[in-house]
């Protein structure tokens, strides 16, 4: 895996895979509020791969549905979709300034 891996993966997967952040398109700098919250949750045993999806307002399925009906591919696709949605929303917020 090359050093450019962080530029080709979504922000969520960059975080999960442990790539350093701080630059690149759409990446949250290490130490941002979102990253700190995820790190804090992970230290307390929260599996963010699952709970990001379960707690997101755009995903109607709960933990039982996710556990019983979703595949790993479904889970990863949901993360990629949420990354894209969040990036589009951020672009929209910046354009309104």
Structure description:
The protein starts with a helix and ends with a helix. The protein has helices at residues 5-8, 11-16, 33-43, 48-54, 63-69, 72-96. With 97 residues, the chain is an all-alpha fold. The longest helix has 25 residues, at 72-96.
What keyword list fits this structure?
single chain; 97 residues; mainly alpha; 0% strand
Overall geometry comes to: globular
Largest sheet: none
**Spans where pLDDT lies below 50 across 5 or more residues:** 1-9, 19-31
Mean pLDDT: 74
Radius of gyration: 14 Å
Structural class: mainly alpha
Summed up:
This protein has helices spanning 5-8, 11-16, 33-43, 48-54, 63-69, 72-96. The protein is mainly α. The protein is globular.
Task: Please outline the helices and strands.
Blueprint: H1 5-8, H2 11-16, H3 33-43, H4 48-54, H5 63-69, H6 72-96
Helix pairs in contact: 4-6
């Amino acid at each position: 895996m090359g050093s450019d891996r962080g530029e080709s993966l979504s922000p969520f997967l960059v975080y999960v895979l442990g790539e350093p952040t701080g630059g690149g398109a759409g990446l949250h700098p290490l130490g941002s509020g979102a990253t700190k919250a995820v790190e804090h949750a992970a230290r307390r045993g929260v599996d963010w791969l699952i709970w990001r999806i379960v707690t997101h307002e755009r995903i109607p399925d709960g933990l039982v549905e996710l556990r019983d009906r979703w595949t790993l591919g479904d889970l990863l696709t949901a993360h990629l979709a949420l990354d894209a949605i969040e990036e589009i929303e951020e672009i929209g917020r910046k354009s309104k300034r």
